[in-house]
């Protein structure tokens, strides 16, 4: 399209769908183009009509307005529509070099429904940190290292069901990770009221899985990440996208010093994080963070586990 239309984001918002690998067919200049803005209005109108998603899918599947649409079908339609709409935004960003303030798409099913975020799977990796919030119960975290070990990135995944106790799905379980889970679990039980309100963690069974992104698989020093994942899964709230949570807990609820917060921040930048949540005790050491790295990542500090959890939640 000509520059007048190509740079007009309001006009581009009329495009409702983009399917990977799909393009407009080649058009005849005589039939479809003008000397002004490019495409004749009838052709554009037909494009917009075919590309609409939610309303079009609803009419195709339920042509009778009196028909009741099951929640499961409505959710599938909305998810498909948002996924398609997001692809449009990502194509605009990639091809037009246009920045968008909000590229996260989500929906609620029902007034009390859990917020569900929609991504485009073919354009993302489970091992890279994206701007999209992870599902409730999932957290990016870094083992702070120390004692000769270097910082390492992990992804924690927690699912919650009726029952009791915490079950680790990894086999075998590294002693360091077992300790991190025990500290996170005990802090959840002792601080339940201030962390999760009226939810009773002892009436739920938590299944915890650790995914090591780097070579290190010890899972040492991930107590705070485990606690945040447990809390997020229990109250069904997501953690902010692009965020890495760092912190090692003890049984009393105190957050231990990070041996080398600069190395942690460097790893976070390398992995594509936009924000790192660290204990306030690391603030002075981070003055040594090189300027070129300080401009690439935002460092936020927390005072205690509750403060970390609240700052990590999607608003």
Structure description:
With 315 residues, the protein is of the alpha/beta class. The protein folds into 2 domains: 3-117, no CATH class; 125-312, 2-Layer Sandwich (Ribosomal Protein S5, domain 2), CATH 3.30.230.10. 36% of the residues lie in helices and 15% in strands. The protein contains 12 helices and 9 strands. The protein has helices at residues 3-6, 9-12, 29-32, 41-51, 54-61, 71-96, 175-190, 192-196, 223-235, 261-270, 291-294, 305-312; strands at 105-107, 116-118, 138-143, 152-162, 166-168, 204-212, 243-245, 275-279, 298-302. It has a 7-stranded mixed sheet. A two-stranded antiparallel sheet has the order 1-2. Strand 7, helix 10 (261-270) and strand 8 form a beta-alpha-beta unit. The longest helix has 26 residues, at 71-96. It is globular.
The neighbouring-strand order within the major sheet is 5-6-4-3-7-8-9
Q: What is the oligomer described by this structure? A: single chain
The proportion of residues in beta strands is 15-25%
The radius of gyration computed from the alpha-carbon positions, rounded to a whole number of angstroms, is 24 Å
Secondary-structure blueprint:
Blueprint: H1 3-6, H2 9-12, H3 29-32, H4 41-51, H5 54-61, H6 71-96, E1 105-107, E2 116-118, E3 138-143, E4 152-162, E5 166-168, H7 175-190, H8 192-196, E6 204-212, H9 223-235, E7 243-245, H10 261-270, E8 275-279, H11 291-294, E9 298-302, H12 305-312
Parallel strand pairs: 3-7, 5-6, 7-8, 8-9
Antiparallel strand pairs: 1-2, 3-4, 4-6
Helix pairs in contact: 7-9, 9-12
